[in-house]
Amino acid sequence: MSLASKTSNRPYAKITSKLFTFVCMLSMWICLAALAILLWNIFSYGWSRVSFSFLTTQPSQINPEKSGIVSSLVGSIYLIGLTALFSVPIGVGTAVYLEEYSSASRWRTLVQTNIANLAGVPSIVYGILGLGLFVRTMSLQRSVVAGALTLTLVVLPIVILSTQEALRAVPGTIRQASFALGASRLQTVWYQILPASLPGILTGVILALSRALGEAAPLVAIGAATYVRTAPRNLWEDDFSALPLQIYNWTDQSQEAFHEAAAGAIVVLLTVLICMNALAVILRYRLSKKIHW
């Protein structure tokens, strides 16, 4: 192509570039506007219900004005705590093995492909699997442990993939330098690779747990209760509820007061999710500043 033809195409290229930039910015503002409208409607409708008594009062099917979310809030805390306990060691360990120990082979490719596919499986499928495996086969009943194990299946592919990305971001020169100084593979992974990849690992884990916090379909599939007055005391036997299930129960009622209570519970859930995502960003930023490559 001659220089003259390139020069003649410059105005068209500038127009195309500006048009593309405009379309991208318009898409961003549309998404932000939709999010702002959603948050405004929820907070304006449910903020009046959020109070200390709302967080510490038992739910009621008779008196919606005085109904609270303490049982479902405690149930969600138990679920997230156990889900983190189950998913983080297994997910991080699997990612470390695939990235640092496993050599390239058809078996590794097959496992990697299946993990990537499992990350896109609808959560209700994991709920059905949890019902058959944990509730019926293992006889865990409709307990908090069964719910946490089911949510572990949901978030485990996400934890594995995010940890793998964090491990791949560590420069190969760190591994080579560690091996050159006589360190074993275990010492290299434990003292060099994992600390360097910690910001990415923590970010992925927190984002995965925030997804688990908002899941309702897997819990409904295993038969978790949508209404429980008291928080579970025995994690292996007692029925439990969670914030998404409590919200679902209230939105299914006909009284307007229940809808206001559901909006208040949504405000609490969104606040927790926003805080978890903000924590992920802050941790990643602060820990990344301490790492010098």
By CATH, the topology of the largest domain is MetI-like fold
Supply the CATH superfamily name of the largest domain: MetI-like
SSE order, one letter for each helix or strand: HHHHHHHHHHHH
CATH-scheme architecture of the largest domain: Orthogonal Bundle
Average pLDDT number: 86
What does this structure look like?
- The protein is mainly alpha-helical.
- It has two domains: 3-48; 52-289, MetI-like fold.
- Helix content is 75%, strand content 0%.
- It has helices at residues 3-8, 10-46, 52-56, 70-101, 106-118, 123-137, 144-168, 172-180, 185-213, 217-221, 243-251, 256-289.
- α4 crosses α11 and α6 packs across α7 (144-168).
- The chain starts with a helix and ends with a helix.
- The mean pLDDT is 86.
Question: Nutshell version of this structure?
Answer:
This protein is mainly α and 293 residues long. 75% of the residues lie in helices and 0% in strands. The protein is globular, with a radius of gyration of 24 Å.
